[in-house]
Amino acid sequence: MEKEILEIRWHGRGGQGAKTAALLFGEAALETGMYIQAFPEYGPERTGAPVSSYNRLSKKPIRIHSGIETPDIVLVLDPTLIGKVDVTAGLKDDGVIIVNTTKSPSEVRKMLGLKDSIKVYTVDAYGIALATIGRAIPNTPMLGSLIKATGILNFDHLLESVRKKLEVKFRGKGADIVDKNIQAIKKAYEETKGEE
Amino acid sequence: MKETWKELPIGAIIKEPGSSKRFETGDWRTERPVLDPEKCIHCMFCWIYCPDSSIKVENGKMEGFLYEYCKGCGICADVCPTKAITMVREEV
Amino acid sequence: MKVVAKTANEAMAEAMRQINPDVVAAYPITPATEIVQIFSSFVHDGLVDTEFIAVESEHSAMSACIGAAAAGARVMTSTSSQGLALMDEVLYIAAALRLPIVICEINRALSAPINIHCDHSDTMNVRDSGWIQIYAEDSQEAYDSVIQAMKIAEEAFLPAMVTADGFILSHAMQRIDMLEDEEVQAFIGEHKSPYNLLDIYNPITIGPLDLQDYFFEHKRQEADAMMKAPEVIKKVADEFGQKFGRKYGLVEEYRLDDAEYAIVVIGSTAGTAKDTVDMMRDKGHKVGLLRIRVFRPFPAEEIVKALKNVRVVGVMDRADGVNAYGGPVFMEVRAALYEEEKKPDVYSFVYGLGGRDVKPVDIERVFQMIMDADKGKKIDRLNYIGVRE
Ligand code: SF4
Ligand code: SF4
C-alpha cells in the first residue's frame, strides 16, 4: 500500500451486505496493524434501495471524518446499479473498479466509459454465491475479488479473519454456513478477471 | 443567621430527620375542626385523609386534633361518615 | 490492552460493560439505539450485574436514573437528540441534586424538520443544565471519556455526558485500544455517592421545597462545584494518561504555537480540521486549531491562553444560535477573550447542520475567509458554511 490513505467505496442494495463487507474487510486490515475506518452510508437501511459503505486504510492514525468522495477502489455488488447510480463518481484516475457481473472487464469499461488508467475487474459473484452458499449474497465473494484485484491484504489472512468473524456472527447456525462463505470467497478470488 | 452557600449540605438535602415538625402549619388555620366524640365510630377515615397527619390517635381511638399542625382544610369533616367533625370559625 | 475494531456506539457500550453500573435506565433512539441494545445483551448474557430498567420515555429514563443514584447506585444511561430534549427538565434536577450519573450521548440534530444526522443542537440545548459535557473527537476518545466521566462525576458530584457525533462516529468502525476489565475497575474505583436515600441510620430528605430563603444559595453551591470541576477533570485525565498512555485535557491545541490564524471546533470535525491544518501548513500558511473537548465547565482560561496571540479566529459551531449573536461556542469564546488587552478578531461560522458533510475544502474556506478579513476584506461577523446560498 503506497498511498497514505486508501479509500474504498462499496455499492450495493439494502440487504446485500455492503456494510458487512466493509466491516469484515476493515477488521481484517486492522489485524495486520493498519489503522482503519469502516462506515455505512449514513441513514436508515431500506431493503433493495441503493446503498453504499466505505473503508479507509492507513499505516497512520486516521483523523479525517468526512465522507469519501474520491475513492481509490470501487466495488459494485449488484450489476443492475450501473446506470442507476453513478458508481464511478470521483473514482481516482489510477483507481480500480470491481463489478459483480457476468460481463467481461472490457464490456464494463465500455459501459461505464472509463479512462484507460482505471483498472477494471469482474466476477460473477451471484453465480458463485448460488453455487456455494445457495443464495445470491454477493458480499463475501466480493472480498475475494478485492484481494485478487488489489493485493491489499494477504489472502490467507483475510480468509482466517473472515472465518473468525463469521463464526461469531453465525453462532449456533452451524459451521456449514461459515465454510460455504469461505468457499465463495476462494472461488471468487480464483475467478476474478482483469483485462489482458 | 441563616447558612451561606458554603455551609449548606450538598444537593439541597435535609439531613435532620423529621425537621418539618418545626414547621407549625397550625397558624394557617381560619377554621378549626371540632370532634363530637358521641358520633365518632373510630373508623380512621379522617386519619387516612388528613394531609398534615394532624389526627391524634391513641390505642386505636380517634382522640382529637394536633392543632399545632392542623391547617384547617376541612377534609376530615368532609370524609367523616358520621358527621362527627364540624368546622368552626377561629376567633382572635 | 487489546486492539479491536469498534464503532463509537459499540465502544461506549463496552465502556459501560467494563464500568458495570448498578442501574441503567434507558430508552432507545437513533443513532444511539445500539448503545442500549448492546448493553442490554450484556445484561442478558450475565456479563454485568446491572439492573436494567426498560422505561417508556427518556423523561422516565432520567427520572429512574435520579431515583437510583439518590439511593446510592452507580448509574448510567444513553440517549440522543429528541431523547435528550425530553430529559431536559429532569437533567436540571439530576445536576442540582448533585447526582453522579453518566450519559453516553450521541449528537443528532433536533427536529424540525425531522433529521437523524449529526449536529450539536441537542447537547447545546442543555449546556446550562449543570451537566459536565465532554465532546469526543473519535471513538477512542468516546470510549476513554466515558470511563473518565464516571470517575469525574463521582469525585465532583456532578452528572456528566460524553458525546460523540451521530453516524460520523456512532456508526463508523475504527481502531480502538480497549482496556482490560480489571484496569477499568481499578481506575474508576469504589462507587461514591454524595448521600444515600436508603441509609436508614442517616435519614435524609431529598427534593424539598426551596424558596427565596435558600434556593439561591443552593444554586450558588452548584455553580461552585462546576467551577471546581476542571481540576477534577484534569486530575482524572492525567491519571488516565499516566496509566494508559492516552492524554486528554480540557482543550487540545494543534499547531497553535506560532499560528496567526486559528479555528475553534468541537467533536469529530476536529480530526478533519487537523488534516486541513497540515495541508495548509505545507503551503506555508500559519494556521492552527483549538479543539474544545470539555465545553462544560467552560475552560475560559485555557481558551484565552491558546488564542490570545492569534490574529484572527474562526469559531465553527455545529449548532445555530438562530437568533443569538452567533453559535454558542462562538459567543462564549468571544466573551472569554473580551478582557484581553491584545485579542484576536473572532468570527462565527455555523456549519454541518443536520449531518451536512464537512470536508477539508470547507475548513480551508473558513481559514481563507479569516485570512482575507485580516488583509482588510470586509466579511460578515456571522457566517454559514456549506449551505446552498
Ligand atoms: S372519620 Fe369521623 S368517625 Fe371516623 S374516626 Fe374520624 S371522626 Fe371518627
Ligand atoms: S382540618 Fe385538615 S388539617 Fe386539620 S385535622 Fe382536618 S384534615 Fe387535618
From TrEMBL, chain B:
<keyword id="KW-0411">Iron-sulfur</keyword>
<comment type="subunit">
    <text>Heterotetramer of one alpha, one beta, one delta and one gamma chain.</text>
</comment>
<keyword id="KW-0677">Repeat</keyword>
<dbReference type="InterPro" id="IPR017896">
    <property type="entry name" value="4Fe4S_Fe-S-bd"/>
</dbReference>
<feature type="domain" description="4Fe-4S ferredoxin-type">
    <location>
        <begin position="31"/>
        <end position="59"/>
    </location>
</feature>
<dbReference type="InterPro" id="IPR017900">
    <property type="entry name" value="4Fe4S_Fe_S_CS"/>
</dbReference>
<keyword id="KW-0004">4Fe-4S</keyword>
<feature type="domain" description="4Fe-4S ferredoxin-type">
    <location>
        <begin position="60"/>
        <end position="90"/>
    </location>
</feature>
<keyword id="KW-0249">Electron transport</keyword>
<dbReference type="InterPro" id="IPR011898">
    <property type="entry name" value="PorD_KorD"/>
</dbReference>
<keyword id="KW-0408">Iron</keyword>
<dbReference type="GO" id="GO:0016625">
    <property type="term" value="F:oxidoreductase activity, acting on the aldehyde or oxo group of donors, iron-sulfur protein as acceptor"/>
</dbReference>
<dbReference type="GO" id="GO:0051539">
    <property type="term" value="F:4 iron, 4 sulfur cluster binding"/>
</dbReference>
<keyword id="KW-0479">Metal-binding</keyword>
<dbReference type="InterPro" id="IPR053389">
    <property type="entry name" value="Pyruvate_synthase_PorD"/>
</dbReference>
<dbReference type="GO" id="GO:0046872">
    <property type="term" value="F:metal ion binding"/>
</dbReference>
<keyword id="KW-0813">Transport</keyword>
<dbReference type="Pfam" id="PF14697">
    <property type="entry name" value="Fer4_21"/>
</dbReference>
<protein>
    <recommendedName>
        <fullName>Pyruvate synthase subunit PorD</fullName>
    </recommendedName>
</protein>
